[in-house]
Design brief:
- The structure holds two protein chains of two kinds.
- Chain A contains twelve helices and no strands.
- By secondary structure, chain A is mainly alpha-helical.
- Chain A is globular.
- Chain B has 15 helices and two strands.
- Chain B starts with a helix and ends with a helix.
- The chains are: A mainly alpha, B mainly alpha.
- At the A-B interface, helix 1, helix 3, helix 4, helix 5 and helix 6 of A face helix 3, helix 5, helix 6, helix 7 and helix 8 of B.
């Protein structure tokens, strides 16, 4: 395969990539502006907006709450999703297509509808447990990602290795931990990362279920954008962008999972 | 219990543990374990996804009298209202327009990127992939806000246009254009990735043969890459259409109150006006739109494509 790419295409791709990063770079520039309002190009240089944001208890509270929520949701999604993926891939179950359809349908039904439907159900049940509601809502939308990525790695498990280990006298729990686990580990890790990000970034589920005491970051960001006009919003946005970059680095370097693999 | 041995001879078989287990496995085909593994997830989604969504659909067929009491029986009243009220119908049309245009413009931008990923060599593929995927990790509120800083009156675009001599640059913020631009940006990755994998599956030697035989790059694209990448395009379009039709945050931040989409309408009807049946009807309509798009693009287009590709071979 020697198919080459024409220089024209390269130029077009370059321009499109510039447009793609522009909305992530411009807030960075504006966040250092020493003016009381948002202006481009930024005037002067200051880091006071960052100081303001970092000192803001509301921002910190939301951030920590979202981390906690995403961690719990990911743990539950894995606890439900790993056995489910194993069951789906290692057994031929009648009705498997229907089961798979149910599992993947939260990816098809618009999130905003899933959210409002849950709100309706919770109010029908008379539930006031906001935290539990958020956990349930986020788990519904994170589960499909976990099951998809864990299933993909279970499918690739080499059954011959298991048989070999069993013949050599390895009891089932040893086969599970020493033979199967190392093979499915990357898929589980990818699923966990996916779940964490989906929960951490979710807006359309949280907007129905959250309340003042349980206020995830995306909702907080939105209220800040709505009510204030100084560069502190740009500073928060920049922090979120830097946080995402950090996440990219951690995923690629620490976990050794390429971002492309995560997306496909 | 009499008769049990008839149903399951394993229960009355010799008390040999492994023999019993084997027999039991032979009878159930080892399925019981499989079902037990799957059951918690299925139960969870049945209770917390299927039930609420179905009850939302049911709710859309009910109505309330003026004093808020539920009226007995089913009615299509909410749907009639949705299609016959000018304001709501305009929002529906705008939503479809934005979703269609986002998919089309998205595809236009996605093709060069997908070709670069599939054909541009490892370095280029990596740079493009990371630049396209990384924004997905940035919260959608932040990405939309980024466009606000570009498109507003004192924003980057106005500055850029002024510096090249445009006296009064258009202010795009809080127009449908702003919503469209940001939607294309936010959902672009969902178009690029399936396209790139479809193009990557095309045998490079086909293009090479066409080029050697004298086809221009353009006709090579139009007659080989484009038709053979249609399955990827179908996946991309149905994803982007579904996501942008149901978008809430992006239209809210960039369109303000001037160009609401169906998502905003649901939120208003339910949280502000407390009209649950009508909100449920809009929700059901959104589900229907998304399902139909998925069916049309994924099933029909793919089937036709399979036949077409089979005939070509």
């Amino acid at each position: 395969m020697t198919a080459t790419v024409s220089p024209w295409l390269k130029a077009i791709v370059g321009v499109i990539l510039l447009i793609v990063v522009a909305p992530l770079v411009v807030p960075l520039l504006m966040s250092i502006s020493d003016t009381a309002y948002i202006v481009f190009p930024p005037r002067g240089f200051t880091l006071k907006w960052y100081g303001e944001v970092l000192a803001n208890p509301e921002a910190r509270g939301s951030f920590l709450f979202s981390l906690e929520l995403a961690a719990i949701v990911t743990a539950i999604s894995l606890a439900l999703g790993i056995p489910c993926a194993a069951g789906l891939t290692r057994y031929r179950l009648p009705g498997q297509d229907a089961i798979l359809g149910l599992i993947l349908s939260p990816l098809i039904v618009p999130l905003i509808v899933t959210g409002v439907a849950l709100l309706q159900l919770f109010s029908l049940l008379g539930s006031r447990a906001t935290f539990a509601q958020l956990i349930i809502g986020h788990t519904v939308i994170c589960l499909p990602y976990v099951i998809r990525s864990v299933s993909a790695s279970f499918v690739l498990v080499d059954r011959n290795l298991e048989d070999a280990a069993a013949i050599m006298g390895a009891p089932p729990h040893v086969v599970a931990t020493r033979v199967i686990w190392p093979q499915v580990r990357p898929g589980i890790l990818a699923g966990a990362i996916f779940s964490f990000i989906v929960s951490f970034d979710d807006y359309p589920i949280s907007m129905w279920l959250a309340d003042g005491d349980h206020f995830p970051v995306p909702l907080y960001l939105y209220t800040v954008i709505e009510r204030s006009f100084d560069p502190s919003i740009a500073a928060i946005s920049s922090l979120m962008i830097l946080f995402a970059l950090l996440l990219v680095l951690v995923i690629e370097k620490v976990f050794g999972i390429s971002l492309a693999r995560l997306a496909s | 219990m009499p008769g049990l041995e008839a149903v399951n001879p394993a229960l009355t078989a010799a008390p040999d543990d492994t023999g019993m287990a084997r027999l039991w496995a032979a009878i159930t085909g080892g399925r019981l374990t499989g079902y037990l593994l799957v059951a918690p997830t299925v139960l969870f989604l049945a209770v917390w996804f299927l039930w609420p969504v179905l009850s939302m659909v049911t709710l859309s067929l009910t109505s309330r009298s003026v004093d808020g009491v539920m009226v007995e029986g089913f009615t299509l009243e909410n749907y009639v209202r949705l299609f016959s009220t000018d304001l709501y119908f305009r929002i529906l049309i705008r939503t479809i327009r934005i979703a269609v245009l986002t998919s089309l413009i998205g595809a236009l931008f996605a093709y060069p990127l997908a070709i670069a990923i599939a054909r541009g060599g490892p370095t280029m593929a990596r740079v493009v992939t990371i630049t396209i995927i990384a924004p997905l990790l940035v919260n959608v509120v932040v990405r939309s806000y980024g466009w606000q800083t570009i498109l507003n009156k004192t924003g980057a675009l106005a500055y850029l246009l002024k510096s090249v001599g445009v006296a009064s640059p258009p202010v795009l913020l809080y127009t449908e254009w702003a919503v469209l631009i940001a939607c294309v940006h936010v959902y672009l990755p969902f178009m690029v990735m399936p396209l790139a994998s479809a193009i990557g599956r095309i045998d490079g030697s086909v293009e090479e043969a066409a080029r050697v035989a004298g086809a221009s790059r353009l006709s090579c694209f139009l007659r080989i890459v484009l038709p053979l990448s249609l399955p990827g395009l179908a996946v991309g379009v149905s994803l982007v259409f579904s996501l942008s039709a149901a978008a809430y945050v992006t239209p809210q931040i960039l369109g303000g109150n001037f160009s609401p989409l169906l998502g905003t309408l649901i939120e208003q009807q339910i949280l502000t006006l407390n009209d649950w049946p009508f909100g449920a009807a809009i929700s059901t309509l959104l589900i229907a739109m998304v399902l139909i798009t998925n069916l049309v693009f994924l099933k029909i287009v793919n089937r036709r494509f399979a036949r077409w590709a089979g005939g070509a071979r």
